[in-house]
Amino acid sequence: SVVIQECYVQNTAREYAKLYAAEAEPLEGFGEVPEIIQIFLIHRPANNIPYATVEEELVGEFVKYSVKDGKEVNFLRRDSEAGQKCCTFQHWVYEKTNGNLLVTDLQGVGMKLTDVGIATLAKGYKGFKGNCSFSFIEQFRALHQCNEYCEMLGLKSLRTTHQKQRKATPTKSKNPPNSSTVKKIVPKKAREPRDFISSEH
């Protein structure tokens, strides 16, 4: 069931968010850390939709903090503290899982997030498969710009690691180091909408 998987995905992402908070909170000047709220699955045998999810109601302006594609420029993601810390959370998870897993669709009110997704490489990660296309991981790698919170956590810039890998390949070519030899990313099949079953509050 879609509802059961959404529950599983959100609660898995929530565990990563707790580990992130444990690492980020003690850092001087980091401040409040985004939190993914808990989502509960309830079973209602008598109802024609037997499974529903229950979660805390978020009151206030609902904002999407994570990038969907290159065309979307979300100033609240780029300029707000919550938005920057969400991007850092994505970078932190990406680095922790060696680029195998990414928490996507970070959205919510202020620092409280819900209805998130997870993208994994095709084979999954540690027995877990996400519910988003792994093209999200490629997109994140191409579009993420580190901010001060990435620096506080000592995360490696995604740009420099790729340049290093290119330089490391022994080649006799006389090309200047910054010649554009970047491979074009072929767009993968778009992700199915996840919100066709409305969760009841």
TrEMBL record:
SMART domains: Alpha_kinase (SM00811). It is found in: Basolateral cell membrane. Residues 1-158 form the Alpha-type protein kinase domain. InterPro entries: a-kinase_dom (IPR004166), Kinase-like_dom_sf (IPR011009). It catalyses: L-threonyl-[protein] + ATP = O-phospho-L-threonyl-[protein] + ADP + H(+); L-seryl-[protein] + ATP = O-phospho-L-seryl-[protein] + ADP + H(+). Residues 170-182 have a biased composition (Polar residues). Belongs to the protein kinase superfamily. Alpha-type protein kinase family. ALPK subfamily. Protein kinase that recognizes phosphorylation sites in which the surrounding peptides have an alpha-helical conformation. Regulates cardiac development and cardiomyocyte differentiation by negatively regulating Wnt/beta-catenin signaling. This is Alpha-protein kinase 2. The gene is Alpk2.
